[in-house]
Amino acid sequence: MSSSDMTIIYQMATINLFKIDGSIILILGNLGGILNLCVFTQKSLRQKPGSIYFIAFCISNFLVLWFGLFPFTFSYIFNIDLSISHLIYCRFRTYTLNVSIILPESYLILGSIDRILITSRNALIRQRSTYHLAFLSISIITMIWLLFYIPIWFYTEIQSPVPGVKICFFNPGFYALFMSYSTMFIVGILPPLLMTIFGFITWKNLQRIRIYPITSDHNTTNLSSRDHQLTRMLLLEICIAIIFSLSGSILYIYTQVTANINTSLEHQALNYFLLSFSVNLVFIRACLSSYSNFIISKVFRKNCRKILVKYFLSYCHQRFNEINTLQITARGTILRMRPITTMN
């Protein structure tokens, strides 16, 4: 194949990556996310502080799908990119994309710290895992990232690197360089490193505990069954996040290193496809949460069945009432329309 043919192949692969795969990820991600929220907001689970981190994680995954993936999918399906025609939307999209990508990993790190507390040998340390700490930690880390990315509103513009091509990106200079390296470190290196450390500590603690109702004995480590299930779900989420984050980071570093080495159109198209694929890994990871929970947790599967049966029975009951109402209305109409005969 010629160089121009390969360039076209890479461009079509990039388009289909968001047009076809993006649509599938949106559907699966939203269905799974709704199921996740339905399960973790149930009374039996939301009483646990660990569930608060899972709820925040689920909500942040929704943000990733709707503020991150949906604009890409919409622009490729309808060939309309509002980010290159409206500056405010350009900055809003860049800001929400960066914030939404970093939030899920941050909540997983907070959740892993909570699991370290709850699986500690010391009962006094276990008691530090509270609702107040969960809400406070989530609020603080969310505010930090919202403030950290505020400069995007001032250093992002609609640019034209070559005639006839417009992009929404950071202004060339210090901030663009800062965002390139900070994204590589904050998103690609630091979260997997912290999750690996905290996840390993949690796993080690989990190996030496007993699954019983928590007691006040300082010399034993007891863990409730539901906390044990939440810990297993979190460890699997951490493994998935590490795999996808490291894979995306490797691809991102490769595109940045080779960007100035080979400037041919074919290589640029390949780099753009790899960069798009690395971003797509973030979206794939965001839609896997409920399905991984379903595989690893018996409690989650049990709650899923209860929810599905509940809504199915509710739907059947509603349809049954609607049919009865229609039948009663039809009988009443027939009775009113029946002719009245009189005897002469």
From TrEMBL:
It is found in: Membrane. It comes from Rotaria sordida. This is G-protein coupled receptors family 1 profile domain-containing protein. The keyword Zinc-finger does not apply. The chain crosses the membrane at residues 20-40, 52-77, 97-118, 130-154, 174-201, 234-254, 274-296. The lineage of its organism: Eukaryota, Metazoa, Spiralia, Gnathifera, Rotifera. Residues 32-293 form the G-protein coupled receptors family 1 profile domain. PROSITE patterns: G_PROTEIN_RECEP_F1_2. The keyword Transmembrane helix applies.
